[in-house]
Amino acid sequence: MQIAREAVESFWKLNTSGTKPTKFILCTALNSCAKLLNWRLGTQIHARIIQKGFQDNLFLNSALVDLYAKCDAIVDAKRVFDLMEKHDQVSWTSIISGFSENGRGKEAILFFKEMLLGSQIKPNCYTYVSVISACTGLESVFEQCALLHGHVVKLGFGVNTFVVSSLIDCYSKCGRIDEAILLLGAATERDNILLNSMISGYCQNLLGEEALKLFVEMRNNRLSPTNHTLTSVLNACGSLTILQQGRQVHCLVTKMGSESNVFVVSALLDMYSKCGSIDEARHVLDQAIEKNTVLWTSMITGYAQSGRAPEGLRLFEHLATEEDFTPDHICFTAVLTACNHAGFLDKGIEYFNRMRKDYGLVPDLDQYACLVDLYARNGHLRKARELMEAMPYEPNSVMWGSFLSSCKIYGETELGREAADKLFKMEPWSTAPYVALASIYAQAGFWNEAVEVRKLMKQKGLRKSAGWSWIEVDKRVHVFSVADASHPRSQDIYGELESLNLEMKEVGYMSKQIFELESVDDGTLLIGRELKIEQWKGKMHET
Asked: Does residue 522 have a pLDDT over 50?
């Protein structure tokens, strides 16, 4: 970036001195403007090019296409491209990359097809990287990626690190992580570009352990992680709630001088918050060189997720009144989430209304989802349903799922049935709505309906997966499931749980009776099961 700034300054001095710029100088200045995203100076240089009669020069036009594409002026980029009498790899790649980076993947792929069929220009590795990246926002992402993968192999680019890395990224983003793993395994050389992409892919697919293993391999091979790698690894530590490993990565962040990167700092905040160390998260924020909306929002979210929602709301009020702070939609989602966790219905409604009134922000689906969930969690299910009908968006599966959970809590059969029916259509292979609806029927005493739901699950081949929890003790992670007896100290664990259960009953705790479906050989049985909310809390290592 510094070199680009110096080049722009040199061009400006040259221009003001009256010296006539050559085509080479103009091309260099355009490339520098593209790196700096300096659209204004780029348009002035474009005018100088026309003034000098250089508008038919291939290299200058290619540089102009690249400049406008990178500055989000894709219409201008296309206009320059269409007026070019001749094209080369650079101009084709620039226009394809421009449409891809501007979220217009379909147009990027159409230009790629036109390049293949309507010209004699062959794509290079950068062209493939651009068009593969364009696939990620399409509905048919996997099919398009697979087609391009075949094309890449056929033309001999299957060993190019940049191309393979983009394929790994594309497969990972569409949930085909197995395909990404095969690509990594087939790579002749595992450099930091490939490993960075694979680590990110593992994290996107909630495979945090695999991401950490690959990160360790990367460090053992003395390969340098990027800020993007550090962000992904910190996200993995947060999702696995492994605080000690997260602290070690924090040390590496400090050692590499990455504490000035806003995304790394945001990932640190998120990691400490998810690991329950909210005070360390606040310390990271306080030590940040530059604080912006991203970091403040991460901190508010951390307070909300750590059971300290009122502190998050106080932080927002402090920012809104005493700091030069303008919240965005994501920040208001965090604020409404904090209200949700704390059960502050009136405050949630107030903040929702302030979005439009104080900041001119039109609430989008995420903010409506928070408000609907807030109404539902507080027992105002009819009001929540009315809001879902009145809002200018179609409710998605997440909204219906949270609404169904609230119907289960409050025993609302009619609305629960409606929510479950919606989810049956939106997520036909998910077991959650079937289990929730059966539980609602059981609590209401509708035994036949509950059994019918279970039969429907069986007919569709759906089976509820077991839930897992884990705890880290003495640098070892211990994993548990329902009725699990595989741990070597299972007897001690269940003995401690029973002791805690007795202590809770002595102080007046009454277990809640819930209903779950169990499968038996000759059909379906609905049984009552005692819901025990005790937690062992890691006492195993003390005994």
From this structure: no
Q: What's the confidence (pLDDT) of residue 540?
A: 46
d(CA 259, CA 26): 37
Phi, psi of 527, rounded to the nearest 5 degrees:
-125, 155
SS3 call for 520: strand
* pLDDT in the model for residue 95: 92
Q: Kindly give, in sequence order, each residue whose CB lies less than 8 Å from that of residue 106, ignoring residues fewer than 6 positions away.
A: 138
CA distance 259 to 254: 6
At 471, give phi and psi (nearest 5°): -145, 140
Residue 113's CB: how many other CB atoms inside 10 A?
11
Torsion over CA: 262, 263, 267, 268 (sign): negative
Does the pLDDT value for residue 486 go beyond 50?
Answer: yes
DSSP 442-489: HHTT-HHHHHHHHHHHHHTT--PPPPEEEEEETTEEEEEETT---STT
Give CA separation, 210 vs 204, 232, 247, 284, in Å: 11, 12, 19, 27
Indicate yes or no: pTM above 0.85. no
Q: Is the pLDDT of residue 488 over 90?
A: no
Q: What is the reported pLDDT for 402? A: 95
What is the overall mean pLDDT for the chain?
Answer: 86
Distance CA 57, CA 414 (A): 70
CB-CB contact of 363 with 355 (8 Å): yes
**Residue-level pLDDT at 529:** 40
Quick one: pLDDT at residue 34?
85
- What is the H or E stretch that residue 435 is in? helix 432-443
User: Tens of pLDDT along 308-334?
Assistant: 999 999 999 999 888 778 899 999 999
Q: How confident is the model at residue 255, as a pLDDT?
A: 93
- How far is Cα 302 from Cα 308, in angstroms, rounded to an integer? 8
For 130, 202, 208, 212, 478, the CA distances from 469, given in Å and listed in that order, are 41, 20, 15, 19, 8
Residues 6+ apart with CB under 8 A from 66: 30, 31, 34, 77, 90, 94, 97, 98
**Residues 320 and 297: beta-carbon distance below 8 Å:** no
DSSP result, 110-136: HHHHHHHHH-SPPP-HHHHHHHHHHGG
